[in-house]
Specification:
Number of helices: 11
Radius of gyration: 21 Å
Shape: globular
Number of domains: 2
Helix content: 40-55%
Distance between the termini: 32 Å
Strand content: 5-15%
Strand order of the largest sheet: 3-9-8-7-6-4-5
Number of strands: 13
Largest sheet: 7 strands, mixed
CATH topology of the largest domain: Aspartate Aminotransferase, domain 2
Oligomer: single chain
Order of helices and strands: EEHHEHEHEHEHEHEEHEEHEHEH
Structural class: alpha/beta
Length: 390
Amino acid sequence: MRPDFQFKDKVGIYLDNAATTVVAEDVVDAMHQYWEFKYGNPGTVYELGREAQDSVDQSRELIVDILKCSPEELFFTSGGTESNNWAIKGFRKGSKGIMVSSVEHDSVLKAAKWESEDNNVPYYEIPVDQYGVVNLVQMERELKTRQYALVSIQYANNEIGTIQPVEQIADLCHKYGVIYHCDAVQALGKIDFDVDDVKADMISFSAHKIHGPMGIGALYIKNGTPIDPLLHGGGQENGMRSGTLAVPLIVGFAKAAEMAVDSIKQEMPRLKKMTDDLSGMICNFFKGAKRNGHPTEMLPNILSLTIPSVEAELICSIMNVRYTTSIATGSACSTIKRQSHVLEAIGGGSEDVFHTLRISLSRYNKEKEMDLVFANLQNAFRDAQSRSLI
């Protein structure tokens, strides 16, 4: 068990696990020897290099066993952003278009828009309902109307936690001969699934959302999917993503994935109860407060709340400095200075971004923390009202 979050000389509560997670102690232990003792380049032929390559192969096998895919279908990347960009920019589309949902991560939205403009191909954003779920009727209507080569729709949203009907999305794509890419960065370790469950042709993953290290992720590419190499060079990853493999990070990713998947059945119901309880307390206390996202089809660890009376950025600052609690206003990849495209897509008002908090838990959070967080939120609200000095 990891020690409590330390903030200078105080013990704090970390509740921004959708942004990143603490690296598990067992993951640190697994990686350590590859920096200090087993530091060989896996591309070399002597013992240190062979040992490193063996560790990469074993790590890949561990992850593909979880995903139930073939080793040659899993490619290591630097993380979710790279995986998403590769899936969108590397896939051969010809003159056909790209379709995404309006609540995708910025790494998907911006890559798709760039690809559309650069190659002069159609670009379309599927609207979502008030819960952030894609409109499948509109999606099929669009697939019938125009020719698309690629659809990219996430498994679960990083801001509000809504889970998409990925199997139905995949079925629609394949019905019209379209490749489906799924960003599963937030879903891994929270939802029990494999590649056959998702039915996607490409799936993105990242280690640092599951108590693994930053800087490592993966892209699953189903055999036969037409995609060009991401990086050219020494021919690593079957020539698809050249560059010296980050052995310690790959080992850490595999260990983190193993631990996360093993804990799903035990931990996710517990986290759901914690977020539900905290949501109830906050919505009962703050007039007009509402929870964002789907009421049932949502990640158990993400709680997005719009509270009209709360100035979110100020509350986050007070919670951080005065109450040593880390919460967020939204995605770590966006800024409070602009409207959240996710809140806008689900029908939020132009001011909602300034009044929305995101609290995201991990398996290291404790039930007793929720009462303390609620009490501190009330105190922070009173501090904000009085504009007392932080």
